[in-house]
Specification:
single chain; mainly alpha; 2 strands; about 5% strand; coiled coil
């Protein structure tokens, strides 16, 4: 009787035969050893079992690599979203600075207007006649145009930011749906 690699423990034993003929004679026969009966089965059965195990392992590895690739894609999208959020944050900071400048400018303008009114009250009638009303109107018109331009610019930036946020929110939801589908 051939010696097994697992020293006659329960389970499967791998047997080495001297020739193919001896193996063919032993296949299908049962040998009684103490109270156990050992049945010899062809190696192809074990090979088939190993192949199915290997296929399942390869399938798992392929699935893991596909999951890893999709996770990498999602991470890239999330990194893009974070970059866009940083850009939006920079734009918001810039707009806040502009708003502060405009508010400071408006308080400056109102302060200048108050000084003009005081100066006009202090001016004598002859001095007030020298200053033309057209010149005062032109300055006021220019100041109003500057205010309107900055307000239009702020409105434009805010609308761009809102559009970007809407797009990012849509991408975020689609990415969450992709994650849930996995």
């Amino acid at each position: 009787m051939p010696i097994t690699r697992n020293r006659n423990k329960k389970g499967i034993a791998i047997l080495n035969f001297e020739s193919q003929e001896i193996r063919d004679e032993a296949v299908g026969k049962g040998y009684k050893v103490d109270q156990f009966t050992i049945k010899i089965v062809p190696a192809e059965t074990k090979v088939c079992h190993q192949l199915t195990q290997r296929k399942t392992t390869l399938n798992k590895q392929n699935q893991q690599s596909q999951n890893q690739e999709s996770n990498n894609e999602i991470l890239q999208v999330l990194e893009g979203i974070s970059r866009k959020l940083n850009n939006i944050e920079e734009n918001i900071n810039y707009l806040n600075e502009r708003v502060d400048a405009i508010q400071y400018g408006q308080s400056n303008i109102s302060h200048i207007n108050q000084e003009r009114v005081r100066n006009q009250n202090n001016l004598t009638s002859s001095e007030s006649e020298r200053e033309s009303p057209k010149q005062l109107n032109n300055e006021e018109i220019q100041e109003e145009e500057m205010e309107n331009n900055t307000q239009n610019e702020i409105t434009q930036y805010l609308s761009q930011i809102m559009n970007k946020l809407d797009n990012m929110e849509n991408q975020h939801w689609s990415n969450e749906q992709k994650l849930e589908s996995y």
